[in-house]
Amino acid sequence: MAQSITQATTSASQSNEISRWTRFVYRRRHWVGFLFIAPWLLSVIWFDIVPFFVNLYLSFTDYSVGLAVPNWIGLENYNVMFTKDDLYLKSLGNTITYLAMSIPLRLLTAFVIALILNTRIRGLGTFRTIFYIPSVVPIVATAIIFTGIFNARYGILNQLIMAVGLDPIRWLTRPEWIKPSMVIMSMWGFGAQMVIFLAGLQGIPQELYEASDIDGASPWQKLLNVTVPLMTPVIFFNLIIGIIGGFQVFASAYVLIGVSGGPLQAGLFYVLHLYNNAFAYFKMGYASAMSVILFLIILAFTLVTVRSSDRWVYYGDN
User: What are the backbone dihedrals phi and psi of residue 102, each rounded to the nearest 5 degrees, phi first?
Assistant: First the structure.
């Protein structure tokens, strides 16, 4: 009896030791995980979170650049932005107009090309590469290329237009054609969205198409009733990314049109106007206020899109 009690006590003691060791190892693994993500975490804190709050503080100050001390002026920058700066509202309107024109066209083009490339045709890999390569070309190089394409006299587009007997278009010097020119150039980089659409198309179960064939569905009916509903999550993702990127259009406009935004400031986009205030007029505090409002605008558009997704995005379980 005494021997059994001793054995039980020893077993319990060993179990407790194992349990303590297990907890110790788990805690060490927990900290090892934090150790591995420490570089990323430090970079997020130092390059994202800290600059965000510094920028927020500067938006309430009169600050230029260099070693000047920021002068606290409260909401004056925001007051000037909405009541005295006519170019601010114009730049915001130009940006929203550009978004309304470019995002639907890019999504539609990328989706249609992805549908074509999802079929079994010869040289499919080559075609996918050809359509994707433009999206990895640096934006400055792309803008320089399109500067030549939009040339009023020697550009490729006007050569084609004159070949059919029409008058050439002054793409970059007529206010009404500046935003369409930017939209045309934005279509050049639809390859990234196309690849995402293509991945989504390849994830659709073939059994659904086979069942549709049994029911006698036409290709158009299969597209509308099978493909499009199952692709709505991918469309939603590309839409969000397009909105965020569209509000931040800068480099292409800077190279193609210039810092002034072209005739009548028709190409003066939001970030271009922000850049001018920060680095041309040295109104760093005012530019910081503009960036805060831009953050809130993008956040509002994103939240509205997310809230509306319940009505049109199908995830397969609703």
Answer: -85, -40
Distance CA 274, CA 278 (A): 6
Alpha-carbon distance of 60 to 70, in angstroms, equals: 9
**Separation of alpha carbons 95 and 190, rounded Å:** 19
Residues 142-168: pLDDT tens digits? 999 999 899 888 888 999 988 888 888
State which H helix or E strand residue 73 sits in: none
- Backbone angles phi and psi of 62, in degrees to 5: -100, 105
Whole-prediction pTM: 0.84
CA-wise closest residue to 235 among 194, 186, 185: 194
Name every residue whose Cβ is closer than 8 Å to that of residue 231 and which is 6 or more positions away in sequence. Answer: 111, 197, 200, 201, 204
Q: Residue holding tokens 């079994």?
A: 120
CA distance 39 to 286: 33
Q: Are 165 and 172 in contact (CB under 8 A)?
A: no
Q: Are 139 and 252 in contact (CB under 8 A)?
A: yes
**183, 102 contact by CB (below 8 A):** yes
pLDDT digits (tens, 9 = 90+) for 134-143: 888 899 999 9
Q: Which amino acid appears at position 12 of this protein? A: A
pLDDT in tens, 200-221: 999 888 898 888 888 888 889 9
Which tokens is 100 given?
């309304």
pLDDT of residue 2: 47
At 181, the pLDDT band (50, 70, 90 cuts) reads very high
Q: Which two tokens stand for residue 210?
A: 């086979």
Q: Alpha-carbon distance 56 to 47, whole Å?
A: 14
What would you report as the CA-atom Rg of the chain, rounded to the nearest whole angstrom? 28
